[in-house]
Amino acid sequence: MNANRQRVAAPSVFLRGRPDRSAEVATELIHGEEVAVVFSRADWSEVENLTDGYRGFIETAALGPVDRATHKVDVLRSHLYPEPNLKAAPAAALSFASRLRPIGERGGFAELSTGGWIFVRHLAPLDATEPDYARTARRFLGVPYLWGGRTSLGLDCSALVQLSLAAAGIAAPRDSGPQRAQLGQRVLGDAPPRARDLVFWPGHVGIMIDGERIVHANAHFMAVTEDSLGDVVGRVGARPEIRRIY
Question: In this structure, what is the dihedral angle of CA atoms 96, 99, 101, 106, given to the nearest 10 degrees?
Fold first, then answer.
């Protein structure tokens, strides 16, 4: 592929199947993610997200030069300020897992290499991990369901799994189908699910909190919710495939 690298400079940007704002959303790219730019013009660029290989079109204005990130946002969302002053009007908000590079600190705020200040305690080193990805997923409880979304303003079922696993240091595909094919080992027979098992139905995925409860982003409630697995099975009308990450 003859492509150059850039990063997502906007807080986030939707990736679409064609260069048109009316096109359906395929996924969302997060601030600081690096992309390979396949083709670019003034308004739209065709890119491949280097996080998960997703390819499509984003608005060119959302891109900027690569700036090697050292930290990530470790809360659901943190404001970006024009100065290290909590009373200043924020310029933007960066979502969970956004990648950035602090270059200084003042008054509890970190100055970013790309401009702006963010509360330093909302950051973690890029290689920091939270092994309990079910716990990470539960941090998103109440966040709206959004097809293609990958931020704390809205996300879908497979994005919740992808982001939660990434926080544990486990790379995952973007969509539930490839996740089902590539993640963990299938639990056979009538063995009950355990905490942190992934549960799959066609087109849907969730994470077991314990042996009975699931956390998932779902269109039934249009939110990330915690439900009994039995209730979800009743609504779907089928038992899930259980996959265990050892």
Answer: -10
Give dist(CA 25, CA 151) in Å, integer. Answer: 14
Name the percent of the chain in helix, strand, coil, to the closest 5: 15, 40, 45
Q: How far apart are CA 115 and CA 97, in angstroms?
A: 18
Q: Which fold has domain 133-244?
A: endopeptidase fold (from Nostoc punctiforme) (3.90.1720)
Burial of 15 (0-12, 13-18, 19+ CB in 10 A): buried
Count the residues in the chain.
246
Q: What are phi and psi of 130, to 5 degrees?
A: -120, 100
Question: pTM of the prediction?
Answer: 0.96
- Average pLDDT (105-129) is 97
Run of H or E including 167: helix 157-167
Query: Is 61's pLDDT higher than 90?
Result: yes
CA distance 200 to 39: 36
CA distance linking residue 74 with residue 25, whole number of Å: 26
Q: Does domain 71-125 have CATH number 3.40.47.10?
A: no
Q: What is the pLDDT of residue 1?
A: 47
Q: Which band of pLDDT confidence, cut at 50, 70 and 90, is reported for residue 220? A: very high
> What residue type is assigned to position 100 of the chain?
L
Say what percent of the chain tops pLDDT 70: 99
> Is the CATH number of domain 4-64 3.40.50.300?
no
Spatial separation of the C-alpha atoms in residues 169 and 181, rounded to whole Å: 19
